[in-house]
């Protein structure tokens, strides 16, 4: 009997489909600070829920699950049916996976105790970001943060397990449901993106080692609130126009952030007269994207301070957000500082 060693077949008859998310997670498990398998399984649970939500969003126009649900969430925002469905899907997947002890969700007033005291992780999640765009077929997303609980396993959940600053995240990611569905995540060792291949039911590595451009020519902000912005921000936006930067604003945080991460740009959701503390949520929106941004070489602040260093004081705390290419964020901050200094001088 003859035995020959395997050599890769580079025939064009069967092209390589690439590295699956599952294989990538297994290969990278040694990068995790607590590499005992739980975090790997947790990421798989999130990926599974993502596939289910992807299926639901793709058939929303055909199955009467679009439109408003008829209730408002804790933010005072009208819930869409898919908001509720996505929240159920992710919570159910995380419960059955067994690695999570508690979930903080945009769609729930209080912390969800999964009654799994042996779980080592806490999840903060926006199950369906930009859901008001569902009915007009515009990209939407999911944002998640993963924290390791600080109290001993086996004991009840405590506030200190939940109210952790973003610099304590062990992983974070987002999912973009668009022309293709992408899952992008980091465990603190760079950022990698995976595209969903629907016919195979698998995520494949499509964007390895994402690095954000240091600068760009895109600025993303809802300029409809221009007259409610502080003077320094108005000056920065005028500067962008003089430089003939491109204004691009989808209205889905994940979609706007993803585009700028790849192409170079800045996303701004500032404080306004109507929302003096900002509108985006710190725990399950800003922290996750800030972690990803920094891992990709970008920057995220509230206009002054690093997002990841903000100590949360409430579950649904809001914050302004300046995030994107480092040089653009620094430049925007400089305009804010100049105006702030002139106010103090007066």
From TrEMBL:
CDD domains in the record: FBPase
Keyword terms of this UniProt record: Carbohydrate metabolism, Cytoplasm, Hydrolase, Magnesium, Metal-binding
The keyword Mitochondrion is assigned to this record: no
Pfam family, one: FBPase_C
Note on how the cofactor is bound: Binds 2 magnesium ions per subunit.
GO biological process, one term: gluconeogenesis
Binding site for substrate: 129-132, 222, 249, 279
Residues of the Fructose-1-6-bisphosphatase class I N-terminal domain: 20-208
Ligand binding (Mg(2+) 2): 126, 129, 285
Keyword Metal-binding among UniProt keywords: yes
E.C. code: 3.1.3.11
HAMAP family: FBPase_class1 (MF_01855)
Family to which the UniProt record says this protein belongs: Belongs to the FBPase class 1 family.
Name the record gives this protein: Fructose-1,6-bisphosphatase class 1
């Amino acid at each position: 009997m003859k035995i020959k060693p395997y050599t890769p077949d580079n025939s064009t008859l069967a092209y390589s489909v690439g590295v699956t998310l599952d294989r990538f997670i297994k290969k990278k498990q040694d990068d995790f600070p607590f590499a005992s398998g739980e975090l790997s399984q947790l990421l798989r649970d999130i990926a599974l829920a993502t596939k289910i939500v992807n299926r639901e969003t793709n058939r929303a126009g055909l199955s009467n699950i679009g439109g408003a649900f008829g209730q408002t969430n804790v933010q005072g925002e009208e819930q869409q049916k898919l908001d509720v469905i996505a929240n159920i899907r992710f919570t159910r997947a995380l419960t059955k996976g067994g690695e999570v002890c508690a979930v903080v969700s945009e769609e729930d007033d209080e912390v969800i105790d999964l009654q799994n005291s042996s779980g080592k992780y806490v999840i903060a999640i926006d199950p369906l970001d930009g859901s008001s765009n569902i009915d007009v077929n515009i990209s939407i997303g999911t944002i998640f943060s993963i924290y390791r609980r600080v109290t001993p396993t086996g004991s009840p959940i405590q506030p200190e397990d939940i109210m952790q600053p973003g610099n304590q995240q062990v992983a974070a990611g987002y999912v973009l449901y668009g022309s293709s569905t992408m899952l992008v995540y980091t465990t603190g060792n760079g950022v990698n993106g995976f595209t969903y291949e629907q016919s195979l039911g698998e995520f494949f590595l499509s964007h390895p080692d994402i690095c954000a451009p240091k600068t760009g020519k895109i600025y993303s902000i809802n300029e409809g609130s221009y007259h409610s912005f502080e003077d320094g921000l108005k000056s920065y936006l005028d500067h962008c126009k003089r430089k003939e930067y491109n204004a691009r604003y989808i209205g889905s945080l994940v979609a706007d952030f993803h585009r700028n991460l790849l192409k170079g740009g800045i996303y701004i959701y500032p404080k306004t007269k109507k929302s003096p503390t900002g509108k985006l949520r710190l725990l399950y929106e800003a922290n996750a994207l800030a972690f990803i941004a920094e891992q990709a070489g970008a920057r995220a602040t509230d206009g002054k301070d690093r997002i990841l260093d903000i100590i949360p004081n409430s579950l649904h705390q809001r914050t302004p957000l300046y995030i994107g290419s480092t040089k653009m964020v620094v430049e925007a901050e400089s305009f804010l500082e100049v105006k702030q200094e002139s106010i103090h001088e007066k």
